[in-house]
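Issue: ligand-bound run for 2-acetamido-2-deoxy-beta-D-glucopyranose - logging full I/O for the record.

Environment: standard queue, default settings, no custom constraints.

Inputs:
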Amino acid sequence: MELFMKNSSLWGLKFYLFCLFIVLLNINRVFASHNIFLDLQSSSAISVKNVHRTRFHFQPPKHWINDPNAPMYYNGVYHLFYQYNPKGSVWGNIIWAHSVSKDLINWIHLEPAIYPSKKFDKYGTWSGSSTILPNNKPVIIYTGVVDSYNNQVQNYAIPANLSDPFLRKWIKPNNNPLIVPDNSINRTEFRDPTTAWMGQDGLWRILIGSMRKHRGMALLYRSRDFMKWIKAQHPLHSSTNTGNWECPDFFPVSLNSTNGLDVSYRGKNVKYVLKNSLDVARFDYYTIGMYHTKIDRYIPNNNSIDGWKGLRIDYGNFYASKTFYDPSRNRRVIWGWSNESDVLPDDDIKKGWAGIQGIPRQVWLDLSGKQLVQWPIEELETLRKQKVQLNNKKLSKGEMFEVKGISASQADVEVLFSFSSLNKAEQFDPRWADLYAQDVCAIKGSTIQGGLGPFGLATLASKNLEEYTPVFFRVFKAQKNYKILMCSDARRSTMRQNEAMYKPSFAGYVDVDLVDMKKLSLRSLIDHSVVESFGAGGKTCITSRVYPSLAIYDNAHLFVFNNGSETITIETLNAWSMGACKMN
Ligand SMILES: *[C@@H]1O[C@H](CO)[C@@H](O)[C@H](O)[C@H]1NC(C)=O
Ligand SMILES: *[C@@H]1O[C@H](CO)[C@@H](O)[C@H](O)[C@H]1NC(C)=O
Ligand SMILES: *[C@@H]1O[C@H](CO)[C@@H](O)[C@H](O)[C@H]1NC(C)=O
Ligand SMILES: *[C@@H]1O[C@H](CO)[C@@H](O)[C@H](O)[C@H]1NC(C)=O
Ligand SMILES: *[C@@H]1O[C@H](CO)[C@@H](O)[C@H](O)[C@H]1NC(C)=O
Ligand SMILES: *[C@H]1O[C@@H](CO)[C@H](O)[C@@H](O)[C@@H]1NC(C)=O
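Outputs:
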C-alpha cells in the first residue's frame, strides 16, 4: 500500500479508504479482484427488477456477471463466454456461462461451458481466452483455482463435438493442469491467460497476468504442441508499482488501416498493443509499442505512458476487456465488463442482477500511431428505430434544448459540434497536471460555466434536471497546447440518497488538434442504466453506470447544452430510439 500511495496518491488513497470502509463495515473480506460477501454468494434472486436493466447491452436473465471470456468467431457463429454466478447477484460460485450469436447483438444463452468439477479447478473457473488452432480446432485456456487459498493453475478445455454448430459442450481433459506456477511466481496472482500466438520459430506463446512485489507483469510461456508449456526467462513486459496485472491482452494493429490482424500476423507496418487490467486501480490500461521478437519482449513507445497515468481503453466503468480477431469482417473487436455502481450488495440482491458487457467495439490504431480508436460495431445500427435529425443549430451560453421524438432512455445519439474560435478557452491550471482527468472534471463540472465549453449532452435527465448525467467537452488553454477534457459525470445522476453509491465524475482527455479543425464529435449509447460515450470518433471512451429514479422510461429526457461563453454550433445531430436486442 505504501508504494502505491507515493506514486498515485489519489487512487491509492481512495483504495485505502475503500478498504477501510469494508473493514469498518465488517463485511467479510476483500482479496484479489472482488468484494467477497460469503453469506450472499448463493442467495438466489427472488425477482428481477426491470427498471434499470439494459435493453441492447449483453446481460443474462439474472444474477452476477463479470469478465468476458474467450470471445471468438467460429464457423459462422460468435461465441461469448463470461464469468457468471449462477446462484446469486454478488461475485462467487464463478462458472463460464456461454452465449452464441450471428451478429454480436442478438444472443442465445446456452448451458454453462466450464464449471468447477475437477481437482485442477475445484475452487474456481476463472478467466481465459480461446485460440483457434491451424486445423480449425478451438481450444480454451483458463485459470483454475485449486484450493481455498486461491492458488491458481492454467487449464485447457476443448469442444466435445466439433459438428455441433454452437459448441455447447466442453471437455476438460485429464492431462490438466497445463501450467502450474514455479517457485518464482506468486501462486495467488497467476491468472487470465491470453489467446496464443505463434512465433516465427513455430512455438506458441501465451501471456499470464501476475505480480512480484508491486511490479505487475505479463509472464510469457512457450509451447511447441500446446500441451507442454515452458516459462520464458523474462516476462514479455512488466512495470513497477502497477500492482497485479489481470486479463492481459496482446495484439498487433495495422499502421495503415482500420482492419484487424490475427494475433499471429507477421509482417510490416504493424505496432503492438499490450492491455492490462490493473487490479488495484480497477481500470484497463494500454500502451502502444514494438514487439521485439528476437528477444521476445514488448517495449512501449517512449511516448506511451506505462502505468496508472497511461491511456485507458475506457475512462469509466469498464474492466477486464478482451479482444478477438473477427476474420469474417476483417476486424478486431473488444468486449469489456461494466460493473454496477452500488457499493453495497443490497441493491444488487434486490434487483436480482449485476453487471453487463459493454457494446462490442471495433478497435484499431489511430493514424497518429499514438493511441487506439474504438467504435461500436456496425451491427448495432440494425437496432436503430425512429430518428430525429437537426442541423446548424446555434447554442449560446446557458442555452439548452431538448431532443424530442425519440425514447431518451434507450437511444443512440451522434452529434457534431463546431465553434469559430479557441480564444475563449479557459486557462489550464498547472496544478491540475498531476491530477487525473476525472478530478479535473470534479472541479470543472457542467454547472461551472466556462469559456469554450462545457458543452455536450445531458443524458438520462429528468424534466427539470433534478437528475442527469452530462457528457460534455471543455477546452482549456495550457502552456504549449490546448487540452480537451471529456467528462461523463455521474454526480447528479440520481436523486436516490444512497451514501454508498459510486457516482464518479469520470473523464479523460481527447487528443485532437482543434487549431485546424474546430470540431468535436460525440456519440452516446444510452440504455436505462448505462451511458457509453465515444468522443472524437472513438479516441476517448467513457462508460457510466447510473440509476436515475425520475428519468426512467418515458420520463427520461435528452438535452443538448452549452454552458460556455463561446457560441457552439450543432452542425448535425442524429438521434435514434433503439430497439431491444434478442436474448434468450
Ligand atoms: C454432434 O453434433 C451434431 C450436430 O449437432 C449431431 O448431429 C451429432 O449427433 C453430435 N454428436 C454427438 C456424439 O453428440
Ligand atoms: C502473493 O499475492 C498475495 C495477494 O496479492 C499477497 O497477499 C502475498 O503477499 C503475495 N505473496 C508474496 C510472496 O509476494
Ligand atoms: C498495410 O499494412 C499491412 C499490415 O498491417 C500490410 O499487409 C500492407 O501491405 C500495408 N499496406 C501498405 C500500402 O503499406
Ligand atoms: C522516442 O522515439 C522516437 C521514435 O522511435 C525517437 O525518434 C525519439 O528520439 C525518442 N525520444 C526519446 C526522448 O527517447
Ligand atoms: C449550466 O450552468 C447552470 C449554472 O450553473 C446550471 O444551473 C445548469 O444546470 C448547467 N447545465 C448543465 C447541463 O449542467
Ligand atoms: C465497480 O464498482 C465500484 C463501486 O463498488 C467500484 O468502486 C469499482 O472498483 C468497481 N470496478 C471494478 C472493475 O470492479
